[in-house]
Write a structure and sequence with these properties.
The protein is elongated. It has 16 helices and 14 strands. By secondary structure, the chain is α/β, with parallel strands linked by helices. α2 packs across α3. A hairpin with a 6-residue loop joins β9 and β10. Helix content is 36%, strand content 19%. This is Phage terminase large subunit N-terminal domain-containing protein. Pfam families: Terminase_3.
């Protein structure tokens, strides 16, 4: 495989204690950093080594598949948390939150590889730093940029000369394996904050509208399709509003997700809270006799979950990672794969007013303003839980549905001809 000048430069210059590859998605960061890590496993200082990611699954997907592919060895089992490689112990550690600090206490390391460093807790990183106590120990890390006040940038990247740290900024053009058409498709998959960070590779501040590509093309008057099934998202409130959205899903037509109806009960405005039994009756009426495959609700809404399940409603815990969910919904909004019935006035208003909190951004955190966002949360629970890859197909390429269709049907001309012949019903 050919390598770019930036990949070669980072490989030969990564001789410091901290070596960090920063930049856009699919920019070739992982390939050059993994090659260097393999070299250090073979010829670096003796002692234990560790590969760290958000969890074991991401380590396998982002690092081990490539690493063992280069080596020509079988990839360790997903249940394997320790192996031997080049005569040294190699540990695999997931660090989803600060509790993971305890998993590496007492370790003595010569080498460490960190996947997606900005997603790790700061306390974990500092503990890892203290564990690299073998003479000549090195840390290798990859990451997409976060906010400019993120601890990794303020306390490490900006102090590179003080800390024996070197870093490189990568863009899509630094990955020679990507063709121009693919780069165009990838760029079209991100907008706003995510575009600045994941495509431009900038440490960008969260500001402005969250769903900045929402427009009239994301709205419709009446649906003219027979959906495959329905999903529901619920944001549960006691002193706050309870909101729900009913989404019809049709994978073989574009757009694939229609928000057909909304439910909204604001206890503050009504002057009283509804009991769980009352809300269950409301939700049953809201769903009616539709083919609902799943109702996604905040995992913290324990009492309502129990009541819904007792009423034989198919309830599942929603994915409640706010940034993850916003990114997924934003991708569908940008691709016009989510359309909202014009009668859903509360959801439509909230989608257009949903904004990043500038005070939190200055502190280095990406958080929405928590005002009039309950319907947005309900939609996020629904979509991000049902489609965690952010698409219906080709999850390895991050294509929107429209882009995927064009790829399948051989480019714009053939796609347009075929699409007009079948009236938009592709597949």
């Amino acid at each position: 495989m050919s390598t770019s000048d930036k990949q070669n430069q980072s490989y030969y210059e990564s001789t410091h204690r901290f070596n960090i590859w920063i930049g856009s998605v699919r920019a070739g960061k992982t390939y050059s950093s993994v090659r260097k890590f393999i070299d250090r496993l073979q010829f670096g200082p003796p002692g234990d080594a560790m590969i760290i990611g958000v969890n074991r699954a991401t380590i396998d997907r982002n690092v081990l598949t490539l690493m063992y592919g280069i080596l020509g060895f079988p990839v360790p089992s997903p249940k394997c948390m320790k192996t031997q490689l080049f005569g040294r112990n190699l540990y695999f550690v997931g660090a989803p939150d600060v509790s993971a600090v305890s998993t590496i206490k007492g370790s003595t390391l010569a080498l460490a590889y960190v996947d997606e460093a900005t997603d790790l807790p700061e306390n974990f990183w500092k503990m890892l730093e203290s564990r690299l106590s073998v003479p000549g120990a090195q840390l290798f890390a990859t990451t997409n940029p976060d906010g400019p006040a993120h601890w990794l940038k303020k306390d490490y990247i900006d102090r590179a000369e003080e800390l024996d740290l070197v870093y490189w900024n990568f863009t899509l053009d630094d990955n020679p394996s990507l063709d121009e058409e693919y780069k165009k498709r990838l760029k079209a998959s991100y907008t706003g904050l995510w575009y600045n960070r994941f495509i431009l590779g900038e440490w960008a501040l969260a500001s402005g509208a969250i769903y900045d590509t929402y427009d009239h093309f994301n709205e419709y008057d009446c649906a003219k399709h027979n959906p495959s099934y329905y999903i529901v998202g619920i944001d549960y409130g006691t002193t706050n509003a309870t909101a729900a959205v009913l989404c019809s899903v049709t994978p073989n037509m574009y757009p694939q997700i229609h928000v057909e109806e909304e439910y909204y009960y604001d206890s503050a405005k009504k002057g009283r809270s509804k009991t769980d039994d009352e809300l269950v009756r409301d939700i049953k009426d809201f769903i009616g006799y539709k083919n609902v495959q799943a109702v996604y609700i905040d995992p913290a809404a324990a009492s309502l979950k129990i009541a819904l399940r007792q009423a034989d409603i198919p309830v599942l815990d929603a994915k409640n990672d706010v940034l993850f969910g916003i990114k997924i919904v934003g991708k569908f909004i940008a691709g016009k794969n989510i359309v909202i019935q014009k009668g859903c006035t509360i959801l439509r208003e909230q989608m257009q007013s949903y904004a990043w909190d500038p005070k939190q951004a200055i502190r280095g955190e990406d958080k929405p303003i928590k005002v009039n966002d309950h319907s947005c949360d309900a939609l996020r629970y629904c979509v991000a839980s049902a489609f965690p890859q952010g698409e219906f197909g080709s999850p390895d390429e991050n294509l929107t549905i429209e882009q995927m269709k064009r790829k399948i049907y051989g480019g714009n001309d053939m796609y347009n001809q075929f699409n007009s012949e079948v009236g938009g019903q592709i597949f």
